[in-house]
Specification:
The complex is a heterodimer of chains A (308) and B (246).
Chain A: E1 4-15, E2 18-29, E3 33-38, H1 44-51, E4 59-64, E5 67-68, H2 73-77, E6 80-83, H3 95-105, H4 110-123, H5 139-151, E7 157-161, H6 169-185, E8 187-192, H7 195-201, E9 204-209, E10 212-218, H8 219-224, E11 230-235, H9 241-245, E12 250-255, E13 260-265, H10 272-282, E14 286-291, H11 296-307
Parallel strand pairs in A: 3-8, 3-9, 6-7, 7-8
Antiparallel strand pairs in A: 1-2, 1-4, 4-5, 9-10, 11-13, 11-14, 12-13
Chain B: H1 2-14, H2 17-48, H3 57-90, H4 94-98, H5 104-131, H6 141-168, H7 172-192, H8 204-212, H9 218-245
Helix pairs in contact in B: 1-5, 2-3, 2-5, 3-5, 3-6, 3-7, 3-8, 5-6, 5-9, 6-7, 6-8, 6-9, 8-9
Classes of the chains: A alpha/beta (308), B mainly alpha (246).
Chain lengths: 308, 246
C-alpha cells in the first residue's frame, strides 16, 4: 500500500448551471499537512465537503486510504475526521458525552471510547469543561470541541475547514501545534485564508481560484516564488539618490522617506558590504539595513493575479 | 449504528426541559380525562345495567380515552418531529452525521426509532392507567391490547410523516406546522367524507377506528406499516438528495 492517505482525481461539481469545481486532482500523503488557500468563494469548502462525503461529486473518484469513498462510503468515512466551517455540535449534550457519541459514530468500540475521549479532551485542552453542556461554552471552546470531535477517533485523514476562526492568539498557537502533531501521525488538509497559518503549519500549499487548483508547491518554496532581492536602509545623513544608484550591483533605488531607501539588486550580486563601507567612509550614518522579505501575502496576490 | 443514533436522539430529547413539561401536561390531561370518564360511567352504570347488552367499562372509559389520545398525539407529535432533521440542518450539525460512516437509511431509522422509543412510555401509560380498573372490575384485556397496538402503529405513522416533513426544510417551525397541517387535513378528509368515499383510506385515524373498537384487521395494520415505510423511504431519499444538491 502506498503512503497516500487521500487521493482525489478529476473532481467536478456544479450547483445548477454554475460549475464550482473544475477537474480537481489532489493527493495527500501520510505525515503531510496540506493547506488549501483561496479567496472567499474559490471552492475550498465545497472541495472539503466532497472529500468527506457530505457532497457527492458530479464526476471523479476519491480514495481514502485506498478505499473508494463513493463505492464503499461506510468503510472509507471511518478514516476521516471532519470539522466543517461551523462546528457540528449538539449543544444540549455535555462535552464528554458528545465526544463519546462522535467516536462511536465513527465506528470505535465501546471499550476504547473512554480512553479516546480522554485523550481528545487533553489534546484540545478541554479538561476544565469536560462535564459542561456545550451550549454554555464560549465560541473558542466550542471550536475546540469541534476539533476534538474530528480527532477523537484517531482518523488517518483530518479535514479542517478554517479551524482557527474565532480563537484567540494563544488558542490559535495551541491548535496549530495540535495540527502539526496530527500531521506527524496521519495527514491533515485544511482550508484557510490566513496566510500566516499556511506559513506556520503547512508542508504544502495548493492555491485555489474559481474552482481550479492554480498553484501547488511546498510552503517554503512558495515563499520564494517571485521573491525580490533587496533591502531597505536607513541613513541619517543620506547622499543624493544618484550616488546610491552608482554602487555596483544596485539595480534601482527608491526613496521611501527622508532617511529611508529601498534598494533592489540582482539576486547574485549583493552590494550590502560595499554599501556599508561607503557609508563609513562618507559619513552617511547607516543605522539600519533590513533585507526585503517576500511575504506569503505578496506571493499569494501575485500568483492569483498572474493566473487569472 | 441505528441504536447509537436513536440513543443520541433520545438523550437530546430528554435533556430539553420543555419535553418534560409537555410530557407532564399530556399525562395530566389524560389522567383528568380518564377520571371524569370513569365518574360519568359510575353515575350512569345503574341505568346501563338495565340494558340487555350493556357496554362495559373498558369500552366506555378505555376506548374513548384511546380515541382522545390519538387526537392529542396528532397535535403533539409534530412538536417533537420538527426537531429531528430541520434543527440539525439549521444548526449545521447535519455534517457530523453526513460525514460519518452512517448511511442515510441508518440515520433515518435511527432518528425514527429514537423518537418512537421516547413516545413509548406516553403510549404505555394509557393501558397502565386502565389496568387500575382491575382492582374493582374485570376490564376487557383484548380491547386494551388492540387499542395499544393500534395507538403504537398510529404514532409510528405520525412520526414517519413528521420526520419526512422535517427533512424537507431548515426551519423546525415550518416542519411542525406542515406536519400538523397534513395530519389535520387527512383527519378532516376522513370525518367530512361520505361513508363510502375512498378518502377514508388515506387517513391514519380512520384505520385506527377498528383497533379502537377492538377489531384487529390486517388491512389496517398493513396500512400503517406501508404508510410508515413510505415516508421513511422518502426521508432517506431526501437525505441522499442533500448530498447531491447540497
Amino acid at each position: 500500500m502506498s503512503n497516500a492517505t487521500l487521493t482525489a482525481r478529476n473532481l467536478s461539481r456544479s450547483f445548477g448551471r454554475r460549475e464550482v469545481i473544475h477537474d480537481l486532482t489532489l493527493e495527500l500523503k501520510r505525515g503531510e499537512v496540506l493547506g488549501l488557500l483561496g479567496h472567499n468563494g474559490a471552492g475550498k469548502s465545497t472541495t472539503l465537503q466532497m472529500l468527506t462525503g457530505c457532497l457527492l461529486p458530479d464526476s471523479g473518484t476519491i480514495d481514502i486510504c485506498g478505499i473508494s469513498l463513493l463505492k464503499n462510503p461506510a468503510k472509507a468515512k471511518a478514516h476521516i475526521g471532519y470539522l466543517p466551517e461551523s462546528p457540528p455540535l449538539n449543544r444540549e449534550l455535555s462535552v464528554a458525552t458528545y465526544l463519546g457519541f462522535a467516536a462511536r459514530l465513527h465506528g470505535m468500540k465501546r471499550e476504547e471510547i473512554d480512553s479516546a475521549t480522554t485523550e481528545a479532551i487533553r489534546r484540545c485542552g478541554l479538561e476544565s469543561v469536560r462535564k459542561k453542556l456545550i451550549s454554555t461554552l464560549s465560541k473558542g471552546y466550542q471550536q475546540r470541541v469541534g476539533i476534538a470531535q474530528a480527532i477523537v477517533h484517531r482518523p488517518d485523514v483530518l479535514v479542517l475547514d478554517e479551524p482557527t476562526v474565532g480563537l484567540d492568539p494563544s488558542q490559535i498557537r495551541d491548535i496549530r501545534d495540535l495540527i502539526r502533531e496530527q500531521g506527524n501521525s496521519g495527514s491533515v488538509i485544511l482550508s484557510t485564508h490566513l496566510l500566516s497559518e499556511v506559513e506556520s503549519v503547512c508542508d504544502r500549499v495548493e492555491i485555489m481560484q474559481k474552482g481550479r487548483l492554480i498553484y501547488g508547491d511546498s510552503s517554503d518554496r512558495m515563499q520564494h516564488y517571485g521573491a525580490v532581492s533587496g533591502f531597505t536602509i536607513t541613513l541619517n545623513n543620506p547622499p543624493a539618490l544618484d550616488e546610491l544608484a552608482c554602487i555596483e550591483g544596485v539595480e534601482s533605488v527608491e526613496k521611501v522617506s527622508a532617511t529611508e531607501f529601498r534598494i533592489l539588486h540582482a539576486p547574485d550580486r549583493n552590494p550590502g558590504s560595499e554599501l556599508m563601507s561607503l557609508s563609513t567612509q562618507k559619513g552617511w550614518q547607516l543605522t539600519q539595513l533590513t533585507p526585503l522579505h517576500a511575504s506569503l501575502e505578496d506571493v499569494f496576490v501575485k500568483i492569483t493575479k498572474e493566473k487569472s | 449504528m441505528i441504536r447509537l443514533i436513536a440513543m443520541r436522539e433520545l438523550r437530546s430529547l430528554l435533556s430539553i426541559p420543555s419535553t418534560w413539561f409537555v410530557l407532564a401536561g399530556l399525562q395530566f390531561i389524560l389522567a383528568w380525562f380518564f377520571l371524569t370518564r370513569l365518574e360519568a360511567f359510575l353515575e350512569i352504570q345503574p341505568q346501563l345495567a338495565l340494558l340487555a347488552n350493556p357496554p362495559g367499562v373498558t369500552g366506555t372509559v378505555g376506548a374513548s380515552l384511546f380515541n382522545t389520545a390519538s387526537l392529542l398525539l396528532m397535535m403533539l407529535v409534530p412538536m417533537f418531529t420538527m426537531r429531528l432533521i430541520a434543527e440539525e440542518r439549521r444548526n449545521q450539525t447535519l455534517a457530523l452525521l453526513l460525514s460519518s460512516p452512517a448511511s442515510d437509511v441508518e440515520i433515518t431509522i435511527g432518528k425514527f426509532a429514537g423518537l418512537l422509543i421516547f413516545l413509548l412510555p406516553m403510549i404505555a401509560i394509557l393501558p397502565l392507567m386502565l389496568c387500575t380498573l382491575f382492582f374493582g372490575t374485570h376490564p376487557d384485556s383484548g380491547l386494551l391490547i388492540s387499542n395499544s397496538i393500534g395507538l403504537l402503529l398510529l404514532t409510528s405513522s405520525y412520526v414517519a410523516l413528521g420526520l419526512y416533513i422535517s427533512s424537507l426544510t431548515a426551519q423546525p417551525v415550518i416542519a411542525s406546522l406542515g406536519t400538523l397541517a397534513i395530519l389535520t387535513g387527512l383527519w378532516l378528509a376522513d370525518i367530512t367524507s361520505p361513508a363510502a368515499s375512498f378518502w377514508h383510506q388515506f387517513s391514519p385515524l380512520y384505520h385506527f377506528q377498528n383497533f379502537n373498537a377492538g377489531l384487529l384487521d390486517s388491512r389496517d395494520a398493513a396500512f400503517f406499516v406501508l404508510f410508515t415505510a413510505f415516508f421513511l423511504t422518502l426521508a432517506a431519499r431526501r437525505l441522499h438528495n442533500n448530498r447531491i444538491y447540497g
